[in-house]
Amino acid sequence: VQLVESGGGLVQTGGSLRLSCAASGFTFDDYAIGWFRQAPGKEREGVSCTSSGIGNTHYADAVKGRFTISSDNAKNTVYLQMNSLKPEDTAVYYCARMGVFLGWTFDSRVYDIWGQGTQVTVSS
User: Which of 14-28, 45-59, 76-90 has the lowest mean pLDDT?
Assistant: First the structure.
């Protein structure tokens, strides 16, 4: 059972990146998947989450209107399309599996499987 992120990189302010989270070892659409980020010296924060089984999405206020989460069940992959990037979006981005669906929450305690993270750097 694992999650593997990819797609991070260096981009200028206003640019775009698409992150991928590839899942393996479990039935993908049985679980909600969330994206989190952690900037240096700051606590980890939730960014977005989705469940293809439920068919709904949720976003943190800081990214609403700029980020879009989607999933491809055939590829067992969740994507995070990030547009209009700002320097404050710089962080390591992680995807995680919600072990039991308890609603749209970014409480990290309910996420049981985490990827290794991918670095996103937005230059000003």
Answer: 45-59
Task: Pull the structure tokens for residue 104.
Answer: 């749209």
Report how far residue 43's alpha carbon sits from residue 65's, in angstroms, rounded to the nearest whole number. Answer: 23
CB-based contacts of 15, cutoff 8 Å, min separation 6: 85, 122
> What's the token pair of residue 102?
């308890």
- The answer to whether the CB of 11 falls within 8 A of the CB of 123 is yes
Cα 47 to Cα 1, 22, 25, distances in angstroms: 22, 17, 24
Tokens read off for 116: 């290794």
**103 pLDDT higher than 90:** no
Tokens representing residue 95 in the block: 């995807």
d(CA 98, CA 100): 6
Beta bridge pairs of residue 12:
123
Per the DSSP assignment, residues forming a β-bridge with 20 are 6, 79
Pick 71 or 28 by higher pLDDT: 71
Mean pLDDT (the chain) is 95
